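Dear colleagues,

As part of the handover before I leave the project, I'm documenting each prediction I ran so the next person doesn't have to rerun anything. This entry is a single chain, and its sequence is reproduced below.
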Amino acid sequence: MTLARNATFRQLAAFDAVARLGSVSLAAAEMHLTPPAVSIQISGLEASAGTPLVQRSGRGIRLTEAGDLLAHYAARLLALWQEAGDEMATLQGVFSGTLRVGAVTTAEYLLPPLLVDFANANPKVKVKLQVGNRDAIVRMLAGQGVDLAIMGRPPRELKTVSHAFAKHPMAFVAAPSHPLMVDGRPGIERLADELILVRERGSGTRAMVEQLFKDAALPLRIGSELSSNEAIKQMCAAGFGVAFLSLHTCVLEMDAGLLALLPIANNPIERDWHVMHLATSQLSQVATAFEAFLCAEGQRQVDARIARIEPGSARPSTRPRRGAGSRSRGSLRPPS
């Protein structure tokens, strides 16, 4: 093929920069070249491909159908070549590279301190963190847009290698003045007529609360559907309804007395945080090292963060709860 035989890495790098930035001038600035020099590289790549790859659109550019297709391959080729360079440097005693991590939205409250500790211990490592809901992170992992993914449970639709690295407490919370705080009913049945603040579809937290109500044979009455944990916390603290959230997201609010755990049997419940990668992919040494770091340090970080919540009704236990293996209408149990 003409493309495979004649295209150069310099042309691919110029095209990748233009595709990412949407501008020849921005790509030129990033590559420390002049705009005409970048345009020459793009023209050469188009000649090898035998078709236009970009089109002018106002002051910027947009990719043609062929350009959109090639952009994905160019990004993967350049990332693989960068990885090869990093691995060669590691063989020579220089531990460096780019750590590409995808994390579900809730994990952004947990992951940054761990990334900072890892980066401080390995100053030549660059970190690229992408955050999204569960569906988005699964797509990134499947498309090899990230090397490692952090989420509550491995996706069933992908073959992955997964390791649990920390406990993940999740709970029903409300404003301390909410009437349910003094409701005498012991279990989840007290929520049957309540408005529940939930995340959008595609979120792991949303899937879990739906399963909890289904297992208890209770209707889930959605008060508001929001794509932000912050928005849910604010509405919940204002007394608008009850929320089901990761306790990692609520540490400051519970410490300040703005939110509190509902006194429901087996609330909070515990799941696990998992770090995973595709079973078919070979991890770089940087990704392998961070995976091992999470398994060694993750639980300590979780314990330190949850310990900020004052003792009492707002503080969860990290011990397994008695009777957790049974299921009843009046208790909470993680879905399988």
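Residues 98 and 211 are 37 Å apart (CA to CA). Residues 87-166+273-303 form a domain with the D-Maltodextrin-Binding Protein; domain 2 fold (CATH 3.40.190.10).

All the best with the project,
I.
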